[in-house]
Amino acid sequence: MYSPFAYDNLPSNEQFFGRNKDLEKLSQVVSYSNNLLIFSKRRMGKTSLIKHFIEQNKKEYCCIYVDIFDITTKEDLAKALLRSLSNAENFDIKTSIKKFTSLFKRVRVEPTIDPNTLEYSIKPIVATLTFQEMMEDFFASVKEIAKTKKVIITIDEFQQIATIKEIPLDAYLRKEIQTRSNTSYIFAGSKRHLLTSLFEYKAPLYEMASHYELLPLSQTEIYNYARLHLPITKDLIGTIFQKADGETKLIIHILHLLFIGRANPIEHSLINEATKEIVQSKDSSYRLLLDTLSNNQKTALKIVGKYKKGFFIEEILKEYNIKKQTLQSSIEALFKKELIDKDGSSYFIPDRTLELWVETIAN
User: What's the confidence (pLDDT) of residue 272?
Assistant: First the structure.
């Protein structure tokens, strides 16, 4: 059955809503071949926004999208870029193989089929090539395509390059970004401390891209879409927004549960029940996560979930029987594990569902 609220997969064109301002920003940036760094809290819809923009513009531009979340070596990056480039154009398999065979100097390509979707795509054959050779073929091909068509290269979860220590990948990429022509780079990510460190003052990528924070959907935008499918009021949307702390995925998930419940009228109690159902569905996985932490880190996570800031005071330290120095070191460990994040003087758990779960065990 169909739900207009896609919470666990990328939304279709019909399910996508409320990001016109952000789409206009992307259009403006790429029209002048500028670069953009998009960042936000997790689950705000960065990937959905980018994929929707690509879908809208794939006929006009050569759109290369690569998600590097799982790369662990510089070779992984090169392979991912080549694979994405090989499948960026809307050609049939035969035409694509002919085109990229002529573009690549060293890389060979062949057709492959996805065993899950049974869809055909192009697979670069690079087993004997070095990182340098693969990257040279990639950038040379991009420059060739850019002679006749604007190119957009989107690298999602871009902060992952900071975890690769073999070579300074940011410095390597800077050289290519500086000499680009008719090409825009869109960098996106949510691990803010890693991502922003790549573009901070004196870093190789400093001033290589304009910074753009993807903010939560407005309550008005959510209401205007939701009321097309649900008997819901602005006040109830406000309650959902508050429950989810503006997190797009959780908002859509709650709306999905209300939609399949088909209750009329919708009441605040139903929103509470939907939220509780979502949190409880993650209980086992969150308990497994908790088991990976030390006792002091567990305590620190509970304190952050409950108080957010100002928790180094004697009263709270006594409540949880933890020393200030121990709490500080535990919070630092959680920060490195990316289980918590910081905004000004306030700490928060970036996964809102996890944050709500922690609140239930912290009391």
Answer: 96
Residue 17 has pLDDT above 90, yes or no: yes
Q: Taking every pair of C-alpha atoms in the chain, what is the biggest distance, in angstroms?
A: 70
Q: What three-state secondary structure class fits 80?
A: helix
Tell me which residue of 94, 96, 74 sits closest to 85, measured CA to CA.
96
Beta-strand relationship, 36-39 and 210-213: parallel
Whole-Å CA distances, 32 to 66, 150, 183, 216, 245: 22, 10, 9, 26, 35
Q: How far apart are CA 239 and CA 245, in angstroms?
A: 10
- Whether the CB-CB separation of 208 and 35 falls below 8 Å is answered with yes
Query: Which amino acid is residue 250, in one-letter code?
Result: L
Residue 117 has pLDDT above 70, yes or no: no
Predicted model pTM: 0.90
- Give the model's pLDDT for residue 78: 95
Q: Mind listing the pLDDT tens digit for each residue in 273-300?
A: 999 999 999 999 999 999 999 999 999 9
Fill in the amino acid letter for 292. Answer: T
Q: Give alpha helix (H) positions in the chain.
A: 20-31, 46-57, 74-86, 93-103, 131-145, 169-178, 192-197, 219-226, 234-244, 248-261, 268-281, 283-291, 295-307, 314-319, 324-336, 352-362
